[in-house]
């Protein structure tokens, strides 16, 4: 009898935008498929007592399955970035930190109920190490994102791109701070393309251009520069690793790069005040794109994870 899984992701990963979160979700689905699991939503699935059901989700999605989990035999929690650092670290406002305490309670409930049946994955060894006291007895793996199927569109125009939804506080704070610095620098053109939900009544149209739903071929273009002015929060490395791995240019903060390889295409800044001058430098530079997959991750445990999943029903 095949094993089935159901996916409960964040709002960003389930949105119609192609972004780091949706590509992260696809990486998880790929691993499950290679390990022999079938998507319950794509089959004539019946929740029988002997069916091995895996629920894959972010911490924020736990509340959606925790109290309706009689059929769940195992939970895969993809933390991605460090859970502690992304909720209580630098860049998170006090209100967001306070809102994280109920999530901590949910994590505790999951820990108690699925102590021996909880799998946790991270995007880097550094993030996993920060959470070492949170999931002490759970099986943990480092899972990179898949980029093999991401296609890049040819482009000779240098555009600046930010990807992320407005409901996420660190994104709003980053855009607010970046707007302040663009005003100081008297920034003119080009406008920054912003891909995500809920920005219509938030961003300053003098500096930003809100983009429609898009595919990865529209989002990732040869001569574009990807901006990551976000200082903290869940999934920040998802904004980095896709363009980095594809050989595209990125401007980010130093705190975002911890646990990842550095590359000449990556401009790492100490503070957000340096973004306008760095953006101006990129406009003046001649960038020759080379189609290549660049190593970004310091470590990957993809094969070990697949092996663990294949043996999961015997645990």
Written overview of the protein:
The chain has helices at about 20-35, 85-90, 95-115, 125-130, 170-185, 215-220, 235-245, 275-285, 300-310; strands at about 5-10, 35-40, 55, 70-80, 120, 140, 160-165, 190-195, 210, 225-230, 250-255, 265-270. Helix content is about 30%, strand content about 20%. The longest helix has 20 residues, at about 95-115. It has two domains: about 5-145 and about 300-315, Response regulator (Rossmann fold); about 160-285, Rossmann fold (3-Layer(aba) Sandwich). Residues about 45-50 have low confidence and may be disordered.
In a nutshell, what does this entry contain?
The protein is α/β, with parallel strands linked by helices.
**Whole-number radius of gyration?**
20 Å
> How many domains make up the 3D coordinates?
2
Query: In percent, how much strand structure appears in the residues?
Result: 15-25%
Shape: globular
Uncertain segments: 45-51
Question: Which architecture name of the largest domain does CATH use?
Answer: 3-Layer(aba) Sandwich
Give the class from helix and strand content and strand pairing.
alpha/beta
Name the CATH superfamily assignment of the largest domain.
Response regulator
Along the chain, the helix and strand elements come as: EHEEEHHEHEEHEEHEHEEHH
Q: Give the rounded overall mean pLDDT.
A: 76
Reported for the largest beta sheet, the result is: 6 strands, parallel
What is the share of helical residues?
Answer: 25-40%
CATH class term of the largest domain: Alpha Beta
What is the CATH topology of the largest domain?
Rossmann fold
For the record, give the distance between the C-alpha atoms at the N and C termini, rounded to a whole number.
Answer: 16 Å
Spatial strand arrangement across the major sheet: 2-1-3-4-5-6
Counting DSSP E segments of at least 2 residues, the number of strands comes to 12
Number of discrete helical segments? 9
């Amino acid at each position: 009898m095949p094993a089935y899984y159901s996916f409960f992701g964040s709002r960003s990963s389930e949105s119609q935008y192609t972004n780091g979160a949706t590509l992260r979700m696809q990486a998880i689905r790929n691993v499950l498929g290679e390990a022999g699991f079938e998507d319950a939503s794509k089959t004539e699935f019946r929740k029988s007592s002997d069916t091995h059901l895996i629920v894959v989700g972010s911490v924020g999605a736990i509340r959606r399955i925790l109290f309706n989990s009689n059929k769940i035999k195992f939970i895969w929690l993809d933390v991605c970035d460090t859970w502690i650092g992304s909720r209580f670290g630098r860049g998170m406002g006090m209100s967001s930190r306070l809102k994280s305490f109920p999530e901590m309670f949910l994590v505790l409930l999951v820990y108690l109920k699925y102590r021996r049946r909880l799998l946790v994955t991270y995007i880097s060894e550094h993030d996993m190490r920060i959470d070492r006291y949170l999931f002490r007895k759970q099986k943990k793996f480092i899972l990179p994102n898949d980029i093999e199927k991401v296609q890049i569109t040819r482009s000779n125009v240098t555009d600046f791109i930010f990807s992320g939804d407005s409901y996420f506080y660190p994104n709003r704070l980053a855009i607010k701070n970046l707007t302040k610095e663009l005003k100081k620098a008297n920034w003119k053109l080009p406008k920054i393309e912003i891909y995500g939900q809920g920005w219509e009544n938030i961003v300053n149209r003098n500096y930003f251009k809100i983009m429609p739903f898009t595919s990865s071929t529209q989002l990732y273009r040869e001569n574009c520069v990807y901006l990551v002015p976000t200082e903290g929060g869940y999934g920040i490395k998802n904004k980095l690793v896709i363009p980095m791995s594809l050989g595209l240019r990125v401007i980010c903060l130093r705190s975002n790069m911890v646990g990842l390889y550095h590359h000449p295409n990556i401009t790492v800044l100490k503070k957000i005040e340096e973004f306008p001058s760095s953006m101006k430098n990129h406009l003046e530079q001649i960038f020759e794109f080379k189609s290549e997959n660049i190593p970004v991750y310091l470590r990957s445990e993809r094969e070990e994870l697949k092996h663990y999943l294949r043996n999961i029903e015997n645990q």
